[in-house]
Design goal:
Length: about 650
């Protein structure tokens, strides 16, 4: 690139940066408090709109003038709605679970009277002498944020906020370099695909650049279909410009002039925010025609997927965009050689593309210092299940599972025992307590029988049945199979049938051998990653929790008391309080009756095993027990109910009714 072009780029971006910085400074120096509310999907689901409305109404009633802004997901989904308040004279303070009632209290007590209400805050957002900073808490201080560095701090619908905080600086650095050098920087960083496969990003870009044919295309894979996973959605909703910047850098490196953000239609907020981001970035010359006067073009559009899990596989995704049924095809040729409409195509996950701008700004040696060995950088997980502080967590590769689950996310609630983590989405593996020291990286997890996947992690406690868990994920992958492969289409169906029988107490001695044989057949015979990894939950639970399978088959007993057919609810009469009707009102099928000594019992013939009586029983009594039917106490006969009198048999007035 000529010095003149570099000057054009610097000048054009310098103007944008100056305007964005001035706009941000004007907001920060404005008088009055500033309130920032997390308005990503997790915040909205927790009631952030109602919280925002309560702030607006209370501020108006109090006569206060305050700026109320929307930000994305901070990652602490367990604490939503989250609110950051910047009140003059105080450091910025992060408040958790801010209901409309709390919002009104914060306005009156904090913004009017100056009392920060310590019982409602998580901490200060910066070092100070008044309030402990949030960075002192394990949930904050043990993360290393690269991809999500600005998530929850920026207004995702204001491009100026992004530019003022370093957005698009990586693109500028790329445009001032050569495409070959950009690819080499990415290759030297060791960045591997965050969609699950872990393939070298730099190597993929190099193959696409060398691939014959035009036009070339960059596709951002935001088809996030794993149950409980929402990393990609949170990034697109919280900092879409970081993803667009990564796409533009990739487009420049491989010689592509168009990009497509493939996002599932079930993410309407992400679609809306990304569409706005594309419009703003195009208007400001950061994507589109002649980017920053460089002579390079890169047009970006959105494609909304229909929600098929198999479309996360890149060849199925391409078929979907082309208007065909989303089904994987044989490879080679790979998409980098023959992808969309037969032309070279790079498909990268949202997290992969969001990692690129930081690498271009700070250099590949910096990125390699984060993480471990063959897995540099960070990993983002959506941690869900039986854990105190569920949400998005970004940690360096090489962090142990124990540190993630117990030190960062707070461990298991209700003093329950840890049982396993299911990692890697529905096709991942289940690892027991003995694997808690396993490093979170591509190679270590594969060796343990699990996989990195796209970043879903489910924490399980002693009340979870591993057989039922395997059945649940098999049911998901069976429904999501495109049906192209016989092994996947038929094999997952038969695997699910065996697991269904075992969970009902109808298992056979040969079932365990059948599960293993069939699982390996499905893995070896399937065409795409969905089929090849679908049996992973079955194989890992068989390997590490075989005794649970044997209890289901040989004893018709579920050790975790989770499988409905193998559990029952029973009321301990010695602990049941006379006159307490809590369980009666909770039963949806009128299965609970009063005994002759005015205590309660359950009619097992009517009980649907919903567990509502167990929840309703007052803690001081805890009379309701969840047990195995084999251990059921003697059944108490229900008193015969009075027969209803039919109208045609009712006595008449003449017979003495007055």
């Amino acid at each position: 690139m000529s010095p003149t072009n570099r000057e054009h780029i610097d000048l054009a971006f310098g103007v944008l940066l100056k305007e964005a910085s001035e706009k941000r400074a004007l907001r920060l120096t404005a008088l009055g408090p500033r309130i920032y509310i997390g308005m990503a999907t997790c915040g909205l689901a927790a009631g952030a709109l109602e919280t925002k409305r309560a702030f607006e109404e209370t501020l108006e009633a109090s006569g206060l003038d305050a700026h109320i802004g929307a930000v994305g997901c901070l990652g602490h989904c367990y604490a939503e709605p989250l609110v950051i308040i910047e009140n003059p004279g105080f450091p910025p303070i992060l408040y958790h679970q801010v209901s409309p009632g709390k919002a009104k209290m914060l306005v009156k007590s904090f913004l009017v009277d100056g009392d920060p209400l310590f019982e409602y805050l998580l901490g200060a957002m910066e070092e100070n002498d008044l309030i402990p900073p949030v960075m002192d808490s394990p949930r904050f201080c043990q993360e290393t944020r690269i991809i999500t560095e600005h998530c929850g701090h920026l207004d995702p619908e204001d491009i100026s906020d992004s530019i003022a905080n370093g957005g698009y600086a990586g693109l500028v650095a790329a445009l001032k370099s050569t495409p070959e050098n950009v690819i080499e920087v990415v290759r030297a960083s060791g960045l591997r695909g965050r969609g699950g496969a872990g393939f070298s990003t730099g190597a993929k870009w190099e193959m696409a650049r060398q691939g014959p044919g035009t036009p070339k295309t960059v596709i951002c894979n935001g088809d996030e279909g794993d149950p409980g996973a929402y990393m990609d959605r949170a990034i697109l909703e919280s900092n879409p410009h970081q993803v667009l910047e990564g796409m533009a850098i990739c487009g420049y490196a491989i010689g592509a002039q168009r990009g497509i953000v493939y996002v599932r239609a079930e993410y309407p907020l992400a679609v809306k925010i990304v569409a706005r981001a594309i419009s703003e970035a195009t208007r400001m010359g950061l994507i589109g025609k002649n980017i920053l006067g460089s002579g390079r073009d890169f047009e970006v559009s959105i494609f909304q997927g229909s929600g098929a899990f198999v479309c996360g596989e890149e060849t199925a995704l391409i078929y979907s965009i082309e208007g065909r049924r989303g089904m994987p095809r044989h490879r080679p040729p790979y998409p980098v050689h023959a992808g969309l409409w037969g032309h070279p195509t790079v498909i990268n996950n949202v997290k992969t593309l969001a990692s690129v701008p930081a690498i271009l700004k700070r250099g590949s040696p910096w990125f390699r210092r984060v993480g471990s060995g063959n897995s540099p950088g960070t990993a983002i997980f959506s941690v869900v299940g039986k854990v105190h502080h569920a949400g998005l967590v970004e940690v360096p590769m090489g962090t142990s599972l124990r540190k993630l689950v117990f030190d960062i996310c707070g461990g298991i609630p209700h003093k329950k025992g840890f049982k396993a983590v299911q990692i890697g989405g529905p096709s991942g593996g289940c690892l027991p307590e003995g694997f808690l020291e396993t490093s979170i990286d591509f190679d270590s997890l594969n060796e343990a029988g699990a996989m990195m996947g796209s970043g879903g992690l489910v924490v399980l406690d002693e009340d979870d049945c591993m057989v039922n868990l395997a059945r649940y994920f098999l049911d998901f992958t069976r429904h999501e199979s495109c049906g192209k492969c016989t092994f996947c289409r038929i094999g997952t169906h038969h695997l699910l049938g065996i697991l269904d029988r075992i969970c009902k107490g109808e298992g056979r001695d040969r079932d365990l051998d059948s599960l293993e044989t069939l699982s390996h057949a499905v893995k070896n015979g399937s065409l795409c990653g969905l089929g090849r990894t679908a049996p992973n939950p079955v194989l890992t639970t068989l390997m590490y929790f075989r005794e649970e399978y044997e209890a289901h088959i040989k004893e018709a007993r579920c050790p975790a008391k989770m499988c409905r057919a193998l559990t029952a609810y029973y009321i301990d009469l010695e602990k049941c309080a006379r006159g307490c009707d809590a369980c009666v009102g909770s039963c949806p099928v009128d299965a609970i009756f009063t005994t002759k000594d005015r205590k309660k019992a359950i009619d097992q013939s009517l009980c649907v095993k919903c567990g509502e009586c167990l929840t309703a029983c007052p803690t001081q009594y805890t009379a309701v027990r969840k047990i195995s039917p084999a251990g059921l106490a003697p059944i108490i006969e229900r008193p015969a109910r009075p027969q209803a009198v039919r109208s045609d048999e009712a006595p008449t007035h003449e017979e003495g009714i007055t």
